[in-house]
Amino acid sequence: MTCRQKALAYGAGTVLIWSTVATAFKITLAHMDPLQLLLCACTVSVVVLGATLVIQGNLGKLVMSAKQYGYCALLGALNPFLYYAVLFKAYDLLPAQEAQPLNFTWAITLSLLSVPLLGQRLNKKELGAILISYMGVLIISTHGNLTGLHFSNGLGVILALVSTIIWALYWIGNTRSQCDPVAGLFLNFLFGLPLVFLATIIFSKLPIPDTPALLGSLYIGLFEMGISFVLWLTALRLAALPEGGGTARIANLIFLSPFLSLFFISHFAGEAIQTTTFIGLGFIVAGNILMQRAGNH
């Protein structure tokens, strides 16, 4: 395979994984609560990311200053602890076909938070893109009843949108991190795991997972929280090479993910996809694409 073909293969593999996780969340949450799922999946992810560092021969990249360890611990409080605790609760309260598109607005949230936190400015096209995306949020969360503003589950919608804020804060924080990406993510999950454990003991109880819960937790920890990140970094690194075809081609693959996700949600989670979900998702994806293009000009 050429470098360009490898980049596309890694990118497509990542998008395929991301497309399945909403279904995995919903199915697994039928067998355990959000904190129990987070505890199991986070434990798997720590093992997977640690093994990745060993295989790559990058354990030495874990050696850093006390200040860097502290920063990784702070980021670990955001992700995996707060982010997935809030996201899983949103999936617990909402149909997957609603939670997944709402969570997909994180890129728009990132652009909004970059204004006060990174000193960036939004032009008129970017503001228009934001309005288009959040129109999609309203369509999905109200099932198209925009005048009545009756939400299917108000708390679930709020949590899904709050998760995008936490995720955006995490990635903004990562822009200031000097760690190797995989080593940094491993430390985030390693430092976040005790917080997840304490929260589970206080607000829930230690899980004794049945077979579906165990398999779901393994899948989420292995793919959503582990392998997908490594695959995506590899795809972007290959695409950035002179013969790789450019990162934009790979980054655009992400827009396939929410539509593929609806297919898996329909066929494996048993949800009948509503027309308003497709319409709202179309608005959200269009807003993301316009935001990306506006930011490049």
What's the layout of helices and strands?
Layout: H1 3-29, H2 34-56, H3 66-93, H4 96-103, H5 106-118, H6 124-141, H7 154-174, H8 181-203, H9 211-239, H10 247-251, H11 257-268, H12 275-295
Helix pairs in contact: 1-4, 1-9, 1-11, 2-3, 2-8, 2-9, 3-7, 3-8, 4-7, 4-11, 4-12, 5-7, 6-12
What does this structure look like?
The protein is mainly alpha-helical and 297 residues long. The protein is 77% helix and 0% strand. Helix 2 (34-56) crosses helix 9 and helix 4 (96-103) packs antiparallel against helix 11. It is globular, with a radius of gyration of 19 Å. The two termini are 33 Å apart. The mean pLDDT is 91.
N/C terminus separation:
33 Å
Q: Helix and strand string, N-terminal first? A: HHHHHHHHHHHH
Q: Helix count, per DSSP?
A: 12
Helix content: over 70%
Averaging pLDDT over every residue, what do you get?
91
Outline the biggest β-sheet: none
Share in β-strands = under 5%
Low-confidence stretches: none
Radius of gyration: 19 Å
Number of strands: 0
Structural class call reads: mainly alpha
Backbone shape = globular
Any descriptors?
297 residues; mainly alpha
Summarize the structure.
By secondary structure, the chain is mainly α.
